[in-house]
Task: structure prediction
Amino acid sequence: MTRVVSRHNPRLREVERLIGSSRDRRKSGRCVLEGVHLIGVYRERIGAPELLVVVDEQRNDGAIAALVAMTPAADVLVVSRALFSEIATVPPDVGALAVVAAPRVPATAAPGAFCLLLDGVQDPGNVGSIIRTAAAAGVDQVLLSPACAFAWSPKALRAGQGAHFLTSLIEDVALDGWCIAFRAGGRRVVASVVDQRAVPVHDAALRGRLALAIGSEGAGVSNAMLAVADERVTIPMAAGSESLNAGAAAAVLLFEAARQRA
Result:
């Protein structure tokens, strides 16, 4: 382990850049996990982090000590609470953060039987919570359009609570073209809309090989996506209610699909 006392340490500066810059995260294909839960899920599903940073006063705590023991000593930095506070987006009581390579799945990967399409969802908290819901509902792949928030930002990762490593994520996908190829294999694309003339979700057929599209918080599913969808579904709501936010709508739609597919 290396004890670091200065924010100007090169490896610590790299951590700070990755936390603060979406450009650096995208360019390097790396991200920062904050907290033992996220790091633990990554360790279990993917492997050891590239770098582990722990708060000196907490490095002997059970969960943090276990992470330290499983990480090569050369890849562990020990810092003070004050220094941790300067670089992290979470309180020093969290005790640990890690730099990891973000798992990458190419857009050309064979589609799963149950896919979720995020069309321009721009709030990173919504993106993370939807990924968490998708993993819990058994989604094989989550595909994000270029207009979506970056799935590996600190806010999205915190909202996902480790779900980023429990399903396959594919970013920067031209979804309308992807859907055309998906449908050519005899699969169906279903788009969610805020339109009470559409099929109520509980009456829609959501079994079989399916891609479910959820649109942005304001504009909804794009016209290009609607043009390639086989069906439009809506969530019935009480009079006076206009819509749900993207995260809540995704939960309703995905778990109705999961119920039918069980």
Observations:
- The chain has a mean pLDDT of 94.
- The first strand starts at residue 2 and ends at 3.
- DSSP finds ten helices and twelve strands in the chain.
